Amino acid sequence: MIPYLKHIMAFLGPDQKRVKLGVFLAFIESIFANMPVGMMLYGFTELAGGTLTGNDILLLFAVMLCALFIRIVLGFCIENYMLLAAYDACERERLDIGDRFRLFPMGFFTQGNLGRVAAIISIDLAFVEEKAIRDLDVVVNAAAMTTIGCVMLSVADVRIGAIAVIVSVVSIFFAQWIERACRTESVLRQEQQGRLSEAILEYAMGISVIKAFNLGGKRAGTVKTAIQDTKVGSLRFEKRFIPPAFAYKAVFHGATALIVWASLLFHNGGTLTIELALIFVVFAFYVFLPAINLGGAIVTFLLGKAGLDRYEELKNHPLMGVDGKDIHIDNYEIAFKNVSFAYDDKPVLKDISFTARPGTMTAFVGQSGSGKTTIANLIVRFWDVKQGAVTIGGTDIREMTNDCLLKHISMVFQRVYLFNDTIKNNIRFGKPTAKDDEIVAAARLARCHEFISDLPKGYDTMVSEAGESLSGGEKQRISIARAILKDAPIVLLDEATASIDPGNERYIQEAIGELVKNKTLIVIAHRLSTIRHANQIIVVEKGEIVETGRHIDLLEKEGVYHQLWTKRMTARSWQMREKAQNSPEAEYN
Prior knowledge:
589 residues; six-stranded mixed beta sheet; ABC transporter transmembrane region fold; elongated; Rossmann fold; single chain; 21 helices
């Protein structure tokens, strides 16, 4: 328990002063909680001696009422100091981890960590701020009440005090038993919460695919298994916790019965006055209550510690770009110098070298999985190269901060993500300080102004999370508008026309022409027809560059690019014949 208390104080940071003040007030509150016992002793003594007067009764009532009022005020202050400090600390830590996510390598987010992150942020930290901090009051109250109670009993009668002291010491060993029993299980329980969150998140995010392929039962089975595993883990946790917790409480309940029995025995033997015997009988049912509650608090602390350990592990994940500098760049030439890269132990790129000059288009083509998108991801430093270097203007991008690097790059991905916000704010994401007229101008260039204007609320129309309320082509054009608004000197296009219907493709190509004018353009190409005028086409196969040149030159070589082009043209010709044969005119003829 002590390691957790140190851990929670370190987590609270500058807010721990308020929590310590709350702990001190909790100690004072426990003193006033014992005051009624002293008043009862005074009242019983006066009553036994036949000297109890109306003024004595009024005094007893006034003191108890004042003690109650003071406890209410102190309780209010304790809640404010401790809980508000916890909420402030957790708010600060959530914002901090959100900033750190920008510096995490993309590999972290593709390795099944989303559910774990969601569980840490929404469950672990919530548990700390709502439960674990609150139970600090239980610890202080238990320690103070038990200590004060033992002292009061010992002063009144050393024999009864000895029983209380011995029981308190013995209870420490049972408390350690609870801690040992739950230490491992608390970690496993929190990890299972993460797996459950991951399963539910995956099911919810993939619900459209699950429905389309009638996989509801299979994927729901995965969620069901995670829920059942969580139940099994929770039951295992409770089974480990119940025996020591029962023994811990039994010690104090037994001590209560022992004090009652001893008090009556000593009074019957003439060695204890009736008023003290009555006080001991009443106090026996009261003095150990805070200590009994401490048993549950120990479990809370262990769960909180497991959550904080997971949070610290997440927070200490290696970052990218933190050692870089804000370097001034005036040359936007991109160069790969003998770059090799692997996802974990799976090689993806092997000794890649090329140069993309400003004001030119460099296109990458190749079969799916050849490494084209990985090259783009390395340029924006979603991952770091394993060997070699990626430079912009002759500067290794690893020498720059992430913000310094990314402010010079606009990206249009094949898979567009829009935020749950207005269309206007989704476009403004490219330039947070942009005015409304700048947003409209960018939308016009991206050929999306017309369909936005036709929406009920125009640019103020809310977009559902991930842009599911818009078509693929509409999302793609908003993404292009966002990139146009940013107006960065380097543009990366992961086949920006892949989701555009043929009727709009010409307009989108014109918009892209505006976007990439006088810029360093990198294109990941799937439609070869869109890169015929590229300054250089780089053919990637199995992670290696096998051909480089212009469209016409590569066709004359009759190599890999020629094969890709021939297959594409053959497929296109077949599609056109199928369309012609299925047209109404062909059917009529």
